[in-house]
Amino acid sequence: MASFVLYSILSTVFLYFVFIISRKRRRLPLPPGPKPWPIIGNLPHMSPVPHQGLAAMAKVYGPLMHLRLGFVDVVVAASASMAAQFLKVHDSNFSSRPPNAGAKYVAYNYQDLVFAPYGPRWRLLRKISSVHLFSGKALDDFRHIREEEIRVLVRALASAKTKVNLGQLLNVCTVNALGQVMMGKRVFGDGSGGADPEADEFKSMVVELMQLAGVFNIGDFIPALEWLDLQGVQAKMKKLHNRFDRFLSGILEEHKTKARQSNGQVKHKDLLSTLISLENADGAEGGKLSDTEIKALLLNMFTAGTDTSSSTVEWAMAELIRHPNIMAQVRKELDSVVGRDRLVSDLDLPNLTYFQAVIKETFRLHPSTPLSLPRMASDSCDINGYHIPKDATLLVNVWAISRDPNEWNNPLEFRPERFLPGGERPNADVRGNDFEVIPFGAGRRICAGMSLGLHMVQLLTATLAHAFDWELADGLMPEKLDMEEAYGLTLQRAAPLMVHPRPRLSKHAY
């Protein structure tokens, strides 16, 4: 009897404390934010360029905001300290993606690496990509491919007789470099980018994908309206998926056919051959790969792995053209380290201190993904005295953080010196360790292709700055260059960079 009474007392005390804690937890407020409308919530408050609109909101409501988009709780982190709370302290709780139309209708129903739910399959895909494509050994093994594709681009620019769309040529170069690594062949012709309808078609597909992925789709936030497709987004996504699937299926079948015809006598060293071999072998964590998963991985590589790099280089070159004094310092360093008798190589990059600061400043001012890919809270949690509900969508405003006047002096000014000794961030790391500048994200879902992206951006930008003098098309003065941003998931220029390249090295260097 005594033990029963003691048990009852202990149970009552335990339940009382559970009740008090749960009440206290419920009493914690949601982060501040604009008052939502009935049903549609804060969707009317969203700006046509979301990262800019959310940055403006953060100035009113603070660096941690809560929005109600339809029936979905959305929290937005807009400062380095807030980003660190979500992507470092609470990273494990925010490692999955929320449901969205793009992953469902374009990315093979969440079977890709970018949108796959956090778990064994995602870890398998991540491991395959990390080991075979993005490891230090893989980057070294394929260094000659990157350098050769950039040399092809340089020759095309050196022979150009009229103005060129630099962004288009950069996209062809990055796609072909990745194509050589992925499947041992160029995707687009000879790589020159001249009158190539396939290259133009692919670029348009990637741009459309980034635009659609950046849309705040009503069906994602009010599920009962998904079937109506009020914005026409889902229909466009399905059509775009069919175009991508034809492109990727053709690549996959061509590779399999060649493998069958060789009867195993030809040993491919590209990633696609490795992926195909994993269709018949058990993976380390989660089983075999399917054709669909392979195509979904290819989709990630040929979209996120190319457009982000080419657009970042385009921004870097635009800034260098706008700032002749910075371009002069970059060239002085390049001429000192590389000379004028050859092109820049991967091995030169660690010796280019000022140039590395230019790249960091480009990533700061023009992050390729200004609004992070959404994450989802697996469980409710408390951050900085606010309650974050379970299943809430997290957005990290990378663009706002990198322009935060509390973190950066004169944040809108392009000033590479801030990353040099004596500057405000001399040791800043863009690889997700310093939350003031996180162009690739941070934590478990940091960009898988970060290392390759860094190498491509650095080598392409250094080569273009070193090998050519640049004039803007149509007599445009550098200070008049349009630096407006286009709408989309990635940070595209609103107006393409149209230029005249003028060779400045010894003729044999080209």
TrEMBL record:
**Cofactor needs:** heme
- Got a GO cellular component term for this one? endoplasmic reticulum membrane
Q: Name one GO biological process term.
A: flavonoid biosynthetic process
The answer, when asked if Oxidoreductase is one of the entry's keywords, is yes
Mark the transmembrane ranges.
6-22
Q: Which superkingdom heads the taxonomic lineage of this protein's source?
A: Eukaryota
For this protein, the record's InterPro entries field holds: Cyt_P450 (IPR001128), Cyt_P450_CS (IPR017972), Cyt_P450_E_grp-I (IPR002401), Cyt_P450_sf (IPR036396)
Q: Which UniProt keywords apply?
A: Heme, Iron, Membrane, Metal-binding, Monooxygenase, NADP, Oxidoreductase, Transmembrane, Transmembrane helix
One Pfam match, given by its short name, reads p450
GO molecular function terms listed in the Swiss-Prot or TrEMBL record: flavonoid 3'-monooxygenase activity; heme binding; iron ion binding; oxidoreductase activity, acting on paired donors, with incorporation or reduction of molecular oxygen, NAD(P)H as one donor, and incorporation of one atom of oxygen
Positions bound to heme: C447
Say which family it is in: Belongs to the cytochrome P450 family.
Q: What is this protein called?
A: Flavonoid 3'-monooxygenase
Question: Native species of this protein?
Answer: Gossypium hirsutum
